[in-house]
């Protein structure tokens, strides 16, 4: 779970009137509102525990030869999952990119491919 940019923007915009009004009652109401929105965001988020990962690698690779590694990401949960997937590789694997944006509806599967050039 990660706090979304929308939530941070909401908190940032709400701080301005609180500073200008300087009323403790407004602060209490704002904190309750932010807590409710945050709880709603958590309830609506897909569970990372419902994600299943499988990796497909080539049998052999030569130094300097480029190959493709596939990571199959399955959402076994009941809610959509959106985020940034980090596929970590050792630096010597020569991974072209290690982060990919994913959006997986419930019950579906996506493939994230990574080009590797070991050195």
Structure description:
Helix content is 32%, strand content 29%. The chain has two helices and five strands; from the N terminus they run ααβββββ. It is α+β, with helices and mostly antiparallel strands. The protein has helices at residues 5-21, 24-44; strands at residues 51-56, 67-75, 81-86, 99-104, 109-116.
Short description:
This protein has 119 residues and is of the alpha+beta class. It contains two helices and five strands; from the N terminus they run H-H-E-E-E-E-E.
Share of residues in strands: 25-35%
Question: What count of helical segments does DSSP give?
Answer: 2
Kindly report how far apart the N and C termini lie: 35 Å
| Global structural class | alpha+beta
Q: How many distinct beta strands?
A: 5
Which regions contain 5 or more consecutive residues with pLDDT less than 50?
Answer: none
Global outline = elongated
